[in-house]
């Protein structure tokens, strides 16, 4: 049942190109238009939406953080992403013009369910992004966009995360399409690139041996830090979460711009720091700022593990370890940048003798609040 892999997690990491392709299947037509018929919220209602609120937990929350950037960039609708467990306890502002997006692999996460119930009570429309057919969250939502990752057995979410991202991009682009906002060359190019993204994920998977080797060499470390900016920040948080839950190591993700506001005090000799570098094309300002961050932490002794786009030469002098990912449009980079972090955490867990598919204290679906 593990298809020749030692762990479900390894199998599920390997299934990501297919999961991504399956989630796109039939949702973009030949002309590059999105055909999300399952989003049964009428276009007239979607055109009136004046705020999007995303609620989710854990890894799904990280997908939601990335979705916020995509939705605001492509639609110009204000969007916020909130931890489902916090949401209903702060009396959030919601009405008929609010679109709430609830992201959940299992469809049974109690925190997310309670958040969406609260949202519907206030009159908001709820769109679920879910991987489990007929589960509670989609049943209680106004509409659902299913991710087609297939069953995810390992407790640590991998392929579900990538497909959640794909679904979030589709929702963002669809909102843009329905509302006619910024539906220009950039969006057409992104839709085209999305069609190629499964192949890019495959390319990353083929080059993971050095990442495994690196992970094994760090098995006796206590702490690993992760830095990123823009979409790379949630990727950093996701890398840290995977390491906590699988390797039981202290791991933290930071927005790289925050380093100087405190976390840089943590940097000491030989501390491994993973840095997710934005594309030098696109938002080149951010790229250059991150390169300076890498220089700063390296000057203080950090062991820099740099995830950077193919062809980005500026990082080479400051990378103790360089992990290459294919070039993608800025907003899509998490689809390729997350994969090495999954492999890294899985291999570190193995090296430390941990149970990869069933980490201690965790359950696959969290049905209590
Ligand atoms: C981390 C992980 C959890 C889940 C979270 C939400 O690897 O799996 O953080 O992402 O419990 O679960 P779902 O998506 O089922 O609502």
List the helices and strands and how they pair.
Blueprint: H1 8-14, H2 16-24, H3 43-48, E1 51-56, H4 58-75, E2 79-83, H5 84-87, E3 98-104, H6 110-121, E4 125-130, H7 136-139, E5 143-146, H8 159-179, H9 185-206, H10 209-217, E6 223-228, H11 232-247, E7 250-255, E8 272-276, H12 284-299, E9 303-309, E10 321-325, H13 334-351
Parallel strand pairs: 1-2, 1-3, 3-4, 4-5, 6-7, 6-8, 8-9, 9-10
Helix pairs in contact: 2-8, 2-9, 4-8, 4-11, 9-13, 10-13, 11-13
Bound molecules: fructose -6-phosphate (F6R).
Features:
369 residues; alpha/beta; five-stranded parallel beta sheet; globular; binds fructose -6-phosphate; cytoplasm; repeat; glutamine-fructose-6-phosphate transaminase (isomerizing) activity; glutamine amidotransferase; transferase
> Which strand order does the major sheet show?
2-1-3-4-5
Name the beta content range: 15-25%
User: Which structural class do the helices and strands define?
Assistant: alpha/beta
* N- to C-terminal distance: 32 Å
Q: Helical region count?
A: 13
Number of strands: 10
Mind summarizing the main beta sheet? 5 strands, parallel
Give the uncertain stretches in residue-range form. Answer: none
Shape: globular
Report Rg: 20 Å
SSE pattern, N- to C-terminal = HHHEHEHEHEHEHHHEHEEHEEH
Bound molecules: fructose -6-phosphate
Averaging pLDDT over every residue, what do you get? Answer: 95
Helix content: 40-55%
